TrEMBL record:
<protein>
    <submittedName>
        <fullName>Uncharacterized protein</fullName>
    </submittedName>
</protein>
Length: 127
């Protein structure tokens, strides 16, 4: 067997370098969370994995942008803000019904509006 035969038998993925470059280009905070997410997606490979990771990056960046906007303007405990922002993203821009929504409606309804408005603002920026 010559060198060309052994090289052609090695499995290759043309998108590997693209994936590596993509991950390296991310801000560190997003990259760390993305790598944790990727460990949970071991059944995905190749281009499917790249697509899933790109979608998760968009979600993480949207989360960070909304969180920063709302956190800068309102004083809310981090766990509630974190859950509420993630819920808003998961429900396409509306904070879902539940205990956090009820608490915010009762105590500070302007935060709900701020979260949902920030979602709309940042989603439009990323279109």
């Amino acid at each position: 067997m010559d060198d060309t035969e052994s090289q052609s038998e090695k499995p290759t993925w043309s998108g590997f370098q693209e994936l590596a470059d993509f991950i390296e280009s991310l801000p560190r905070s997003v990259r760390e969370r993305l790598l944790k997410f990727a460990k949970q997606k071991q059944e995905e490979t190749g281009d499917d994995l790249l697509l899933v990771l790109r979608q998760e990056v968009r979600t993480l960046q949207l989360y960070d942008a909304i969180y920063a906007d709302v956190d800068a303007a309102h004083d809310l405990p981090n766990p509630i803000l974190s859950r509420t922002v993630r819920g808003c993203i998961d429900h396409a821009g509306r904070v879902p019904d539940g205990s956090d929504r009820d608490t915010l409606l009762r105590d500070c309804p302007q935060i709900l509006e701020a979260i949902e408005s920030a979602y709309q603002k940042h989603v439009l920026e990323h279109l």
